[in-house]
C-alpha cells in the first residue's frame, strides 16, 4: 500500500488501536503516539495498546495516548516487523502496518514499508503531511524522539539526507531538540554508568579484532542496580571499539535465554545472521533471542559471523 492509500484509508475509517512492539523503543513509541495525536486532530478515536513494557523514560510522553479500555474497530501497528514482536497480551489481527524493516513478514492486511527510512518516525511524519499538511508541536516532539533514538542521535549509518530534512522540519514545528537530546543522550543514572564501565572492561575481540562482543549477565544487572529504564541502546557500547567490523551485545534474560543485538559496517548483513535464530532487522542492525545462556549463544554466533566476514 502506498502512503497516499494509507492516508485515504485512515480518513475513511475511525476508531484505531495502535500497536507498539515488545520491549518498546523510542521509534515505535514516538511514532505511535504521534500518529494517535494526528488522528485525534482529525476527530478520530485513536489510542495506543497498553504495552506493559513501556519504561519510565518514555511514560510521560506516551501516557496521554494509552487506551483505557473499550473496543476499537481497527488495529494499526507501527515499527513492528513480525507477529513475534507484538506487545505482551495482544491477540488479534492487524489491518495496517507502518514499518521500515526490510525483514517485515507481511503479517498485516496492508503494509506501508519503506526500508530506506532510518526510522519509522520518518514514515509517520510523511503520513502526517498527507493527512494534515504539517505536524503539531506535540507531534514534532514525539517524532524527534522516534528519529533521534533510532539513529543514535543521527550518528548511525542508517542516517540519510531525508533524515536530516525530517529533523529540520520537526525543529521548525517546535520540537524541543535540546531538551530531548539532553534527556535521551546526555544524562544517565548512576547504575547505567556503572554498567557501562563493566561492559567496557569486559569487551572481548575475535577474528583479529574484527568482531567485538559484550556480555551483560544477570549478575552485572543486579550488582549495578539498573532497571529496564537504564537499558536503552546497550548495543551501541561495544561498537565504540576502534577497528571492529561486527559488534555483538548479548544480554542475559531472567529466564536464562539471551537477547542478542548485532551491529555491523557494510561488509556483513547481520539481519541474515539474526534470521537463523528467528530474528531479523536491518542489514547493519539486527537482533534475535536465543534460548541459551550468553556464553553458549556466543559460541553459536561466532562461526556465523566469521563465515560472513570471510565471504565479505
Would you mind describing this structure in some detail?
- The protein folds into two domains: 183 residues, Alpha-Beta Complex (inorganic pyrophosphatase (n-terminal core)); 122 residues, Roll (Diaminopimelate Epimerase, Chain A, domain 1), CATH 3.10.310.30.
- It is built from eleven helices and eleven strands.
- Helix content is 39%, strand content 16%.
- The strands form two sheets. The chain has a six-stranded mixed β-sheet with strand order 6-7-8-9-11-10.
- The mean pLDDT is 95.
- Helix 2 links the parallel strand 1 and strand 2.
- It is an alpha/beta fold.
List keywords for this structure.
single chain; 2 domains; inorganic pyrophosphatase (n-terminal core); five-stranded parallel β-sheet; 312 residues; Diaminopimelate Epimerase, Chain A, domain 1; alpha/beta
Amino acid at each position: 500500500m502506498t502512503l497516499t492509500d494509507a492516508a485515504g484509508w485512515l480518513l475513511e475509517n475511525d476508531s484505531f488501536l495502535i500497536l507498539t512492539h515488545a520491549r518498546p523503543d523510542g521509534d515505535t513509541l514516538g511514532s505511535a503516539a504521534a500518529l494517535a495525536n494526528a488522528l485525534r486532530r482529525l476527530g478520530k478515536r485513536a489510542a495506543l495498546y497498553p504495552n506493559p513494557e513501556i519504561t519510565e523514560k518514555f511514560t510521560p510522553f506516551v501516557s496521554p495516548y494509552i487506551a483505557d479500555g473499550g473496543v476499537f474497530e481497527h488495529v494499526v501497528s507501527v515499527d513492528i516487523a513480525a507477529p513475534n514482536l507484538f506487545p505482551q497480551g495482544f491477540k488479534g489481527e492487524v489491518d495496517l502496518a507502518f514499518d521500515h524493516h526490510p525483514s517485515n513478514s507481511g503479517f498485516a492486511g496492508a503494509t506501508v514499508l519503506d526500508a530506506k527510512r532510518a526510522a519509522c518516525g520518518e514514515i509517520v511524519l510523511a503520513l502526517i503531511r498527507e493527512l494534515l499538511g504539517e505536524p503539531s508541536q506535540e507531534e514534532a516532539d514525539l517524532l524527534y524522539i522516534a528519529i533521534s533514538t533510532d539513529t543514535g542521535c543521527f550518528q548511525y549509518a542508517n542516517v540519510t539526507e531525508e533524515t536530516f530534512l525530517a529533523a529540520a522540519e520537526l525543529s521548525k514545528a517546535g520540537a524541543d531538540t535540546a531538551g530531548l537530546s539532553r534527556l535521551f543522550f546526555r544524562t544517565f543514572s548512576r547504575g547505567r554508568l556503572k554498567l557501562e564501565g563493566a561492559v567496557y572492561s569486559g569487551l572481548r575481540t575475535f577474528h583479529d579484532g574484527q568482531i567485538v562482543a559484550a556480555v551483560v549477565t544477570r549478575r552485572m544487572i543486579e550488582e549495578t542496580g539498573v532497571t529496564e529504564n537504564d537499558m536503552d541502546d546497550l548495543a551501541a557500547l561495544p561498537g565504540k571499539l576502534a577497528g571492529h567490523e561486527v559488534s555483538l551485545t548479548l544480554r542475559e534474560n531472567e529466564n536464562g535465554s539471551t537477547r542478542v543485538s548485532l551491529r555491523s559496517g557494510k561488509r556483513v548483513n547481520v539481519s541474515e545472521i539474526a534470521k537463523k535464530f528467528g530474528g531479523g532487522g536491518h542489514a547493519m542492525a539486527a537482533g534475535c533471542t536465543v534460548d541459551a545462556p550468553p556464553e553458549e549463544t556466543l559460541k553459536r554466533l561466532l562461526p556465523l559471523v566469521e563465515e560472513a566476514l570471510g565471504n565479505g
